[in-house]
Amino acid sequence: MTAQKVVSLSEYRQDTQQMHIDDVSAQAFLFLQEQAQELDLPMRKLLKEHLLGIACVVKAVEGVDEAQNWLALISDEISTGERH
Prior knowledge:
By secondary structure, the chain is mostly helical. The chain is built from 3 helices and no strands. Helix 2 packs across helix 3. It is extended.
């Protein structure tokens, strides 16, 4: 008898949600890339400004501590390659 893989509803929802998040993130990146090309903007500078803008929004909405926590998690992920 072969073992059947049973996927829980919460696992399925989590996987589906991550898939949607990945799709939206990819679309946002492609939009930024397209705009950078159309407007002859350096992509590196545009991405840095975009990330800074996101950090400022998190700081304004969630507070300095949460913004720093996000940045620490991002830094860890860049250093280790492990997703949190």
